[in-house]
Design brief:
This protein has 600 residues and is α+β, with helices and mostly antiparallel strands. Among the domains are: 188 residues; 115 residues, no CATH class. It contains 16 helices and 23 strands.
């Protein structure tokens, strides 16, 4: 197998399973994730599914795949790289095939493959935990290998377990959720393995230039972006890069925008498709859904999964409009125009022009939402993306300083597009609304006595220090005293300048919790947004310093996580790993820092 110079070192099959571009399969070590299940603790692997709203722990296809040599000795997984797994001293290998299959091949000696499915159907067929999907297999030459029932100490106790003997050069194609095509696989297992290696060779050839100190983690980030690709059942022609195949198997609107920022450095078309996916679901009034998933969209309260309804009822009360108002829209912050222009700027594409009409309608939709004073706000907590932020402790709607800031950036992007086309009147109209919005933001949300921006909630003003109060830097229009106050807040070690910045709640705030999602941990999208705000406000040194500290934190943590502990720089408790927008924005910061260094 090909080695990707360290990218495979992160695929420990414990926290980070093997998966592949387009695959819905996740391959873990059997001793982790299978605790309490048949086969746990015995040599081998567990295969789970990447399913919307389900953890891999509740979507097991196979409790156990184990490979043995001809004498019955177990062959451990000795090498894991993006294109597959090698067992023993290159005695056998495993490669993922398409969305729902894998192939196991004996390379030089005969091997025995033991399969233990999740269970069996009433008529004795092996089935998965996911909707009782059937599991089938055949040799890649089209024949069906003989299956021996498992007995004795080497086999698990689950029903339907079998041993399959593979002769030298023989292989097994196993499929989840459908019958295996009996036609021979051209070239057999070797061809499937070669195709996977070629696919990853092509992908890593697109890796953008970065500094040597960041290269290992950048390779891993680049792997994450490709390995998180699926095709959603509702959009079979588009490769969607999901946040994570472990519990986040759908496209979330602002995740997709941030992911496009990283993808633009190596695959402009894939980056563009992340935006197209959402504009294909735009409603007639201009709104966009929060989520696009295999079964449809999450665009309003009525679409929420039961687990989300229960969580919001517990936090905000069962009678909260965010739980009971079925037609309340749920969306995400309007970053599309900015993301589209960013893709075009790097890749030379015309995505923003392609989406122009939809972008205009999106911005009009936001400015038409109910508001107490002309500045739009978030009706639903999910629309902010800040699921448990203290900004929403008083319920909703919340009129926070970040949303108008995003809209100013969006309007500037649309003005730039109009100027590109020689349409001065349209450019002036967009620019005037951006100017007005930025001025109102300072007038109505900045507290000069406190020296910070505040949010309006149903209980009045919410003054909790969060980095979202720094988002007005994105406008590039702040008066010097306001800009100086925000820069001081950013540099304050008792506030936002944590050992590993930026905490999502100030360190001295009573709501601060170093491990609780949006109440303390570091999120890369927040840091990335503040870096962009500092640049747009002319604070280049501060932007470079925050970017350096962010990249250094990721490198030192040894992984690319959902969020980080601001006091230790380690992965925060409860955060998933191999997270899509963290990979994309870490990569983007690393590319920018490399270019900045080269330009000095």
């Amino acid at each position: 197998m090909v080695s990707w110079e360290g990218a495979g070192a992160f695929l420990d099959l414990e926290e980070v399973p093997l998966t592949d571009r387009g695959s819905r399969l996740l391959v873990f070590k059997n001793d982790d994730g299978g605790a309490g299940r048949p086969g746990a603790g015995r040599a081998g692997l567990r295969v789970a599914g990447a399913v919307y709203e389900r953890s891999p722990d509740t979507s097991t296809h196979l409790h156990r795949i184990a490979v043995f040599d001809g004498a019955g000795r177990p062959l451990e997984a000795t090498a894991v790289v993006p294109e597959g797994i090698t067992f023993g001293d290159s005695a056998a290998s495993l490669v993922l095939v398409g969305s729902d299959a894998l192939s196991i091949g004996a390379l030089a000696e005969p091997v025995v493959v033991l399969l233990e499915p999740f269970g069996t159907s009433a008529d004795g067929r092996p089935v998965s935990e996911v909707d009782g999907a059937g599991i089938s297999w055949r040799a890649t030459d089209g024949t069906v290998p003989a299956a021996d029932p498992v007995s004795g100490d080497t086999g698990p106790a689950g029903p339907g377990a079998v041993r399959l003997l593979l002769p030298p050069g023989g292989s097994l194609l196993l499929r989840i959720g459908g019958a295996v095509d009996q036609a021979p696989e051209p070239g057999g297992h070797a061809a499937l393995l070669a195709a996977a290696a070629s696919r990853w060779t092509d992908w890593f050839a697109r890796l953008p230039a970065v500094r040597g100190t960041d290269l290992e983690l950048v390779r891993y980030a680049w792997w994450i972006l490709a390995s998180n690709i699926v095709q959603l059942d509702t959009h079979p022609g588009i490769d969607a890069v999901v946040p994570s195949k472990q519990g986040y198997v759908a496209a979330w609107q602002w995740d997709s925008y941030f992911i496009s920022i990283g993808l633009r450095h190596g695959d402009a078309e894939l980056a563009a498709d992340q935006l197209r996916l959402f504009f294909a679901e735009q409603t007639p009034d201009g709104g966009l859904p929060d989520v696009v998933h295999d079964h449809g969209t999450l665009a309003c309260v009525a679409d929420m999964p039961p687990g989300d309804v229960a969580t919001l009822a517990r936090i905000h009360g069962a009678d909260s409009p965010m739980v009971t108002q079925a037609d309340m829209p749920i969306t995400k912050p309007p970053l599309a125009a900015w993301a589209a222009r960013a893709v075009d700027a790097v890749a030379g594409t015309s995505l923003q022009s392609e989406l122009k009409d939809g972008l205009d309608r999106l911005h009009e939709w936001w400015f038409a939402r109910p508001t107490p004073d002309g500045l739009p706000g978030y009706e639903h907590v999910y629309s902010s993306g800040l699921d448990d932020s203290p900004l929403f402790d008083d319920g909703g709607p919340v009129f926070a300083p970040d949303l108008p800031s995003y809209l100013v950036v969006a309007l500037d992007a649309m003005a730039d597009l109009a100027e590109d086309a020689g349409d001065g009147a349209t450019a002036a109209r967009h620019r005037a609304l951006a100017d007005t919005t930025a001025a109102q933001l300072v007038e109505k949300r900045f507290d000069a006595e406190l020296g910070r921006f505040v949010a309006l909630t149903p209980a009045g003003r919410r003054t909790t220090v969060t980095p979202f109060g720094l988002m007005p830097l994105l406008t590039g229009r702040l008066p010097e005293p306001v800009k100086a106050a925000l820069a001081a807040r950013l540099a304050d070690p008792s506030c936002l300048s944590a050992p590993f910045p930026l905490p999502t709640v100030g360190l001295s705030e009573p709501e601060f919790n170093q491990d609780r999602m949006w109440r303390g941990p570091v999120w890369l999208n927040v840091n990335w947004l503040i870096v962009q705000g500092l640049l747009r406000s002319g604070l280049e040194a501060e932007a470079a310093a925050l970017a350096e500290r962010t990249v250094a934190m990721v490198v030192a943590s040894g992984g690319i996580h959902e969020y980080w502990n601001p006091l230790t720089g380690a992965r925060a408790a409860g955060a998933t790993t191999g997270f899509g927008w963290s990979a994309a924005l870490f990569l983007d910061l690393a590319v920018w820092l490399a270019a900045t260094d080269a330009g000095r």
